[in-house]
Amino acid sequence: MSDLKNIHEEYRTKLKEKLSLDQINQIKSDLFGKNGLISSQFKTLGSLDENKRKQFASELNKIKDELQNTISEKFKELELKKINEKLENEKVDITLPERPIERGKIHPVSQTIDEISSIFSEIGFSVEEGPDVENQYNNFTALNTPDYHPARDMHDTFYLDEQKEILLRTHTSPVQIRTMLKDKPPFKIIAPGRTYRSDSDQTHAPMFHQVEGLHIDKDINMGHLKGCLNYFIKEFFEIDKIKMRFRPSHFPFTEPSAEVDIGYEIKDGKIVIGEGDQWLEILGCGMVHPNVLRNVKVDPDKFQGYAFGIGIDRLAMLKYGINDLRAFFECDYRWLNHFGFDPLDVPTNYRGLSR
Ligand code: PHE
Q1: Domain range 108-339, CATH class
Q2: Where are the domains of the chain?
């Protein structure tokens, strides 16, 4: 009996201390293990006479319950402590600086297409689109370009089949055909997009960009063409005066045809547009050939007009001082970071497409 009291006292005191999980487990096994101090007390019951046994048993059970309860309390305390510690460690520190955000840039070609579209939309042109993969009819035949024309040569054109029926469009002019076939005149559209020719050097890439223009109505003449292009160039380069010249040229789908050069000079290593005695070719144009109109069921005696095709990449190079065309399409992020446009910091001259 006194043995039991001693055990009780000793362990009650022990359990009041601050204990680790291992220490509590140790106490548990000391007391209640197979040969534990309490477990062995139960074994003595058999040797006691009935009266004593009852009293001792009830005493023993009380102490056993009390110690067991204290032990499980201790376990719970430790568990709670562990959870709290974990919560403490996983706390989100909202004062930490944020991770850097990589913001994409708008490619100079996309930026230039947006600018061109907004300039033309202000004088009534709407924007049309056509596919990069075309048939030879829309790309050549309908545009009055006969079979023997050099533009059809394997050298220039990427054909996609043996029969030379399907190809990558060599210019945006097939969008003229598509537009006129699906609607009735008048037409006043521009069509920016990708074009392809087997050609590559510092100023030519096998894939490049053009914007087509087409204006067909009653009584449209070459003066309108000149006025329209003059307005466009001035708006695009943001200058009041522009030196511009029309050079006679030839395209199968326009008659007469012209190429347009703009004047420039190099001042302090920088190109200045609109002045000087140097000339730079930027577009081809002309009055739409009557055969083209006939091919799309437009009566050339009632309707006529002009068309033009501008090289977008070259305009972008000029406006934004980029001197190698190939860099446009190399997908080098460092280049894009330098020459690209921040989508949230749009240049002041940008009017946006919706205006
Ligand atoms: N399609 C011609 C080219 O790619 C340009 C052009 C378009 C010329 C429209 C006249 C009229 O060179």
Answers
A1: alpha beta
A2: 2-89, 108-339
pLDDT of residue 331: 85
Mean pLDDT computed over 164-176: 96
What is the Å distance from ligand 1's center to 111 Cα? 22
Ligand 1 contacts CB of residue 251 (under 6 A): yes
- Which residue's CA is the closest to the ligand 1 atom numbered 12? 284
When pLDDT is averaged across residues 223-231 and rounded to a whole number, the result is 96
Mean pLDDT of 62-84: 90
pTM (two decimals): 0.71
| 57-64 contacts, C-beta under 8 A, 24 or more apart | 59/1, 59/4, 60/4, 63/4, 63/7, 63/8, 63/38, 64/32, 64/38
- Is the CB of residue 308 below 6 angstroms from any atom belonging to ligand 1? yes
Q: Would the CB of 225 count as within 6 Å of ligand 1?
A: no
Q: Ligand 1 pocket: which of 197, 247, 251, 254 to mutate (most atoms <8 Å of CB)?
A: 251
